[in-house]
UniProtKB/TrEMBL annotation:
Organism of origin: Spirochaeta lutea
Domain of life: Bacteria
Protein's name in the database: DUF4351 domain-containing protein
Length: 120
């Protein structure tokens, strides 16, 4: 079985005349290495995409929770909702959610998000 795989690959490689200066075993090794490298790259890309998707989902969830709580307790304008949705700093959103617990008005919560450098 192994010999068939080797023979099949060696035939493919022999047909490839672009690399006439490389021996058949070297060509086979290059092809295998390329294939493995591409597979690893795809796997890493998928993993990174999943991580980014999870992070983005958590951010959107925190934005939605803050909007829901503020809307229920104080009511929000569409501009205020849009502002909260524009905040991409999860730490600022978490601080705003913490502030919500003791807040007597929505301005106290929104101020946490408006602090310089807090929303990006």
């Amino acid at each position: 079985m192994r010999a068939e795989g080797y023979n099949s690959e060696s035939r493919k490689v022999l047909e490839d005349s672009a690399m006439g200066f490389i021996s058949t075993p070297e060509r086979i090794g290059l092809r295998r290495g390329l294939k493995e490298g591409m597979e690893r790259g795809i796997e890493k890309g998928i993993e990174k995409g999943i991580e980014q998707g999870i992070t983005r989902g958590q951010l959107v969830a925190e934005q939605a929770i803050l909007i829901r709580l503020l809307e229920h307790k104080f009511s929000l304008s569409e501009e205020e909702k849009a502002f909260i949705r524009s905040v991409e700093n999860t730490q600022a959103l978490e601080r705003a959610l913490d502030m919500f617990v003791d807040a007597t008005d929505k301005a106290q919560v929104l101020e946490v998000l408006e602090s310089p450098g807090q929303n990006r």
